[in-house]
Amino acid sequence: MKHILIIGATGQIGSELTMELRKRYGNANVVAGYIPGAEPKGELKESGPSAIADVTDAEAIASVVKEYHIDTIYNLAALLSVVAESKPKLAWKIGIDGLWNVLEVAREQGCAVFTPSSIGSFGATTPHTQTPQDTIQRPRTMYGVTKVTTELLSDYYFNKYGVDTRAVRFPGIISNVTPPGGGTTDYAVDIYYSAVKGEKFVCPIKQGTLMDMMYMPDALNAAITLMEADPTKLIHRNAFNIASMSFDPETIYQEIKKHVPQFEMVYDVDPLKQRIADSWPDSLDDTCARQEWGWKPAYNLESMTVDMLEKLREKLK
Q1: How many degrees, rounded to 5, is the angle at CA 10 between CA 199 and CA 109?
Q2: How far apart are CA 260 and CA 277, in angstroms?
Q3: Fewest Cβ atoms closer than 10 Å to its Cβ: which of 10, 27, 168, 308?
Q4: Which residues of the chain register pLDDT less than 70?
Q5: Residue 165 CB: number of other CB atoms within 10 A?
Q6: Rg of the chain's alpha carbons, rounded to an integer?
Q7: Distance, CA of 17 to CA of 27 (rounded, Å)
Q8: b/e 115-143 (16+ beta carbons within 10 angstroms → b)
Q9: Residue 111 main-chain phi, psi, to 5 deg
Q10: 18, 34 Cβ separation under 8 angstroms
Q11: What positions carry a catalytic annotation?
Q12: Cβ-proximal residues to 312 (8 Å cutoff; 6+ apart), any chain
């Protein structure tokens, strides 16, 4: 039986990943790690153990790992893309200095580590269509710089110390549970809320800007499936391209209008978000993930839209 620590368990991905892991491995075996001021609430708090696990405090992480006999760490601590640009020093402290602490604890305690990368690890000089698994990565945002460093540092700890590090490059994640919190792809979450609330949506990304996206259930399944995969079949480890759907704002708007005909959208482009979006791939080639550990998404834009609207109508009524 696995004993798992989620660092960043109250964040956008972490809160849902923690609950999914508890369903699969048992509530008592999954510890929700948090920082002071961001304590778990509601079902997240009541369904299983929680502990302070700040990535900037190696001793605190080591203490939790020892107390709960942790063998697997999901390290989700990071600032999102737009926030990281306004706080680059903090983004590095959390994303890289924090990762170093996690990897050191994992080396000493024999833990496997999942630390996600992102499509933000690519840059303007990366091939944008069907971006290869192995290609040039020269991002110009601090978010992207930390993600490339995450991949390299995780590979280093695997090759030098044998730490079982694994990662995926997440595209934009769309969720009906947790609200967006400062990402470039957040518009693809906000647009559903506006549609259900009957509000006109003001889109910060210009028409024609393609970006890879994924529905949260697929993202959670990808992280868990990779950590359960046979290590002898993994070639790339840090980090796998994973893909589900790619669309621009107009495409998702038209898909929503099939179900909400009166829905309206206008454009008011945010220069920072647009600059970041333009540097990211239009679509990813995820052949390696499919071949090495059986990655396969369950949702496309149509099925995700149906589910998002249904869940948000229930949530917001």
Answers
A1: 155
A2: 27
A3: 27
A4: 1, 180-182
A5: 29
A6: 19
A7: 12
A8: bbbbbbbbbeebeeeebebeeebebebbb
A9: -100, 150
A10: no
A11: 143
A12: 176, 192, 193, 196
